[in-house]
Amino acid sequence: MSPRMNRRLDDFTQSDLRAMTRACRAVGGINLAQGLSDLPTHPLVQEGAIEAIRAHHSTYSPQEGIPELREAIARKMRADNRLACDPETEVVVTAGATGGFTAAAMALLDPGDEMILFEPYYPYHRNALIGLGAAPIAVRMQGDRCAIDDDALAAAVTDRTKAIVVCNPANPPGKVFRRDELERIARLCVERDLFAITDEIYEYYLYDGNEHVSLATLPGMRERTITISGFSKTFRITGWRLGYVVAVPEIARRIGVVNDAFYVCAPTPLQYGAARGLGVGRSYYVELRESYQRKRDLLARAVEAAGMRPLIPEGCYYLMAEVSRLGWGDARTAARKLLDTAGVAAVPGRAFYDGDEGDRWLRFCFAKEDAVLEEAARRLERVGRM
Ligand code: PLP
Question: Which atom of ligand 1 lies at the shortest distance from residue 167's CA?
Fold first, then answer.
């Protein structure tokens, strides 16, 4: 006998991603399963943090983050997201976007409350909600363009619904929400008096001229939206654990309190690095889009040549591929076989869906050095010739 642990956690979905990463390591394969970039961090960001460490900025920061970073975030929000916010009262620096999401959800939720996620969803959102005793309610996006089914969305709202989560651009399908779709979501939030939590961590990873629109800028949404983003992807510093939340002062204050209770603050010297990084020129973001669009296209061609059907992402750095044409069975079996035959790891889609739709899909990450991605592409193309 041993004391009982938190049973809610039995429902967490992580195992496939970790299992594929472990299996990939065991065979020395190319890991396109995990969503992290192995490309270098911008020198400005590195230098900002190194100087802060040398200057002994090593104690706790204010719970809402250092003023330099909050001011830089407010400037960035105004310039890039068209969202004016007060760095003193409306910005909280968090332990990654993940810490921001947890703090935001905790600030809003009572046990038993519901939050709507668009499916395929980012499993960390679902897990955080389950961990907090809330119910994630999945609303399936429709077709290859991942359209929002307005009727299904409206029907999913109940008396317990607290918020709609909008991951934009969306991991895993790479959908970029168009303004008219966001307007319809906004109208529903206003009509049914709901909050919205956005996750905009891939806001700079946009292809084919797609534009990023922040939900908080739409009519009626400023006071009910918690905008979350972070630096993990933009500056390729996933291990630094730096993100942020923007919300009206009443909400931001609560999120700051939760942030303090669980994390105290985000890593102080690294906050200086991110503040410095926000001064990079426009060309950094242009180059990012162009180079990742090339990576996307390379992977899409290879996945197609391997015999799968790729969904071409409009944003993010993932590509979903439908596996049925391979004739290798469900996605979990196909992922294993792909690793065994080609030495390339992808995540089976079960992680992103409630039901068995995930058995049709694999997710590949293309945030890799060109040489690594080219080798993965060669291996995938070989599968098609087998
Ligand atoms: N949000 C989404 C949609 C992600 O895909 C990821 C990482 O894969 C994160 C958040 C993690 O962000 P952070 O490293 O800032 O916690």
Answer: 3
- Beta carbon of 171 within 6 Å of any ligand 1 atom: yes
CA-to-CA dists, residue 307 to 49, 101, 204, 241, 368, angstroms: 45, 37, 30, 38, 22
pLDDT tens digits, 9-50: 877 766 688 889 999 999 999 999 987 777 789 999 999 999
Query: pLDDT tens, 270-312?
Result: 999 999 999 999 999 999 999 999 999 999 999 999 999 999 9
Which H or E element spans position 67?
helix 67-81
Whose Cα sits closest to atom 8 in ligand 1? Answer: 35
Ligand 1 atom with the smallest distance to the CA of 170 is 3
CA distance 27 to 16: 17
What does the pLDDT read at residue 40?
Answer: 83
> What's the 322 CA to ligand 1 centre distance in angstroms?
24
Atom number, ligand 1, closest to the C-alpha of residue 35: 8
Instruction: Return the number of other C-beta atoms located less than 10 Å from residue 230's C-beta.
Output: 31
Is the C-beta atom of 105 inside 6 A of ligand 1? no
Cα(228) to ligand 1 centroid in Å equals 10
Alpha carbon of 41 to those of 211, 241, 293, 305: distances in Å?
24, 14, 19, 32
CB 232 within 8 A of CB 72: no
